[in-house]
């Protein structure tokens, strides 16, 4: 990878940098992501925590996901923008929101999760894999 992947919040108080390619990228249609995003889904990219760094302070919100795992949402305390998330199920990973990327055109979803919760007005791209919930563990 030649250039770091960068992004941050709306007001610029929180910034991040990822120095490795994402592990994966996709959409989540779960009802939690619908509420947090204010729309039909969240578009996310997973990165290694070791390749991720931030500047600026974040506020957090923790909750229990359908999986039973604790998820922590990090957001800007000034503008409220969601910046990244973490989970106790994978402490070595960070999930960023594609809308916060400096260059959102690099985002390319290759799956959709929780399609059973998708809103009729939020169409899932038929060319990507779709799972009714979380994909089966291998």
Could you please describe the fold and organization of this structure?
With 138 residues, the chain is mostly beta strands. The chain has one domain: Alpha-Beta Complex (glutathione-dependent formaldehyde- activating enzyme (gfa)), CATH 3.90.1590. The protein is built from 1 helix and 11 strands, in the order βββαββββββββ. The strands form 2 sheets. The chain has an 8-stranded mixed beta sheet with strand order 6-7-8-9-4-3-10-11. The longest helix is centred in the N-terminal third of the chain and has 7 residues, at 31-37. The radius of gyration is 14 Å and the shape is globular.
Write the layout of secondary structure elements.
Elements: E1 5-8, E2 15-18, E3 24-28, H1 31-37, E4 42-48, E5 52-55, E6 59-64, E7 70-75, E8 82-87, E9 90-97, E10 111-113, E11 129-130
Parallel strand pairs: 3-10, 10-11
Antiparallel strand pairs: 1-2, 2-5, 3-4, 4-9, 6-7, 7-8, 8-9
Q: For the record, what CATH class applies? A: Alpha Beta
Query: Spans with pLDDT under 50 lasting ≥5 residues?
Result: none
Our Rg estimate from Cα atoms comes to 14 Å
- The DSSP helix count reads 1
CATH fold call: glutathione-dependent formaldehyde- activating enzyme (gfa)
Helical proportion, percent range = under 10%
Question: What is the makeup of the main sheet?
Answer: 8 strands, mixed
Give the ordered list of helices and strands.
Answer: EEEHEEEEEEEE
Shape: globular
Total discrete domains = 1
Query: Which percent band covers the strand fraction?
Result: 35-45%
Q: What value does the average pLDDT take?
A: 94
Query: Going by CATH, what is the homologous superfamily?
Result: glutathione-dependent formaldehyde- activating enzyme (gfa)
The CATH architecture can be given as Alpha-Beta Complex
Which structural class matches the secondary elements? Answer: mainly beta
